[in-house]
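Progress note, project year one: complex with 4AD.
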Amino acid sequence: MATVLIKNLDKHIGEEVSVRGWLYNQRSSGKISFLIVRDGTGLVQGVLVKKDVGEELASLAGNLTQESSLIIRGVVREEPRSVGGYEILIAGLEIVSIAEEYPITHKEHGVDFLADRRHLWLRTPRQTAIIRVRSEIEQSIRDFFYENDFVLADAPIITPAACEGTTTLFELDYHGDKAFLSQSGQLYNEAAAMALGRIYCLGPTFRAEKSKTRRHLMEFWMIEAEMAYFDMDDNINLQEKMLHFVIRRVLERCEREMKTLERDVARLEKITLPFPRISYTEAVEILKKEGVDFVWGDDFGAPHETAISKYFDAPVFVHRYPATIKAFYMKPDPENPAVVLGADLLAPEGYGEIIGGGQRIDDFKLLEQRIAEHNLPQEAFAWYLDLRRYGSVPHSGFGLGIERTVAWLCGLDHIRETIPFPRMLHKMYP
Ligand code: 4AD
Ligand code: MG
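Model obtained:
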């Protein structure tokens, strides 16, 4: 007899199977008990008819508490009215462990209560759906890069220098030396791109953000790509192709999860290529038209990004930001050096910036000057400058925040649900 996953029950109609999982819920009507079992892939209703299984098995079932672990055995049948669409007529039941009184019941709980019990909250259908979508997003990204001749070149987590400004660094003691948790793998990606051509990394990044928002985590995962001989337009073209691929994969393979999340998938389905592209200056015009008080040269905050993205049904690229608000490595636009050849991608529906990227400075002198202007330690960047000494080429790259992408594709209000164990301001338990 086969042990099957609940999501595959449709392939076993009329067969006797066993399912290994946990008791999600139950109800009883005297002669019949309904055991709703979850196994991480879905829910199925086990039907236990007392007169058919006998006293012993029936009383065993009577002892089951929520989240007790169990194995049920029986024949699968279609039942459109039951959760998941299938039922198992229970012929055998093995109790693996009886759970103590479970703190998360089927009534509503406050989000703080749930966040403190994240290790258990993860078991609920909504949370498992989100993590499955997250997994599909990461897998599809890896597949995209693999199919497009990119090499995976993992970047280090412990670093001697800042990549994205010195105000959000997590510092640590590295055997007596000062080190930091990586804010971005970009600088290492640039070195790897000069070695391999086109590369990417996917790993955790860290920022000691002082703000408590629905978009910021202290630890988040970023997919970062870097390409030798790519200019700004090549970079943007690649990003939209990748993101479109990811959206299609999620729509194709996460239909069940999107239903559980009650996501309006029509909004994702109508996204086509190419994505709209506007300059920072044009974005400022949109804000002015909207009556927002905004001065050219300032950085966009969340409300600005939302106002801009509302103009478009698809993600929108905003390019050529003022050099003063962007990182030290961004290449100035030769036609107007006050702006840089960088672009952010703003997600629709108010989800804000999901990608930051751009063309990098490839000139040795200019980069050296920028490092000095930003008061960055020259020694720590000596190796990075080497990349401009030995065979420098135009190159570009980007970083996509996994959690913000999950929040958008799943239609979530808050980033805390997009990762199994979020790290937020003043909160790292469990
Ligand atoms: O725009 P950022 O800071 O860009 C970089 O780090 C570049 N060095 C990437 C590169 O070119 N290789 O961050 C990139 C993305 C943002 O667009 C956002 O999606 C996400 O990372 N992000 C965060 N996500 C969650 N919490 C935070 N605190 C985040 N900070 C950035
Ligand atoms: Mg950014």
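The longest strand covers residues 16-28.
Residues 50 and 56 are 9 Å apart (CA to CA).
No further modelling is planned for this target in the current period.
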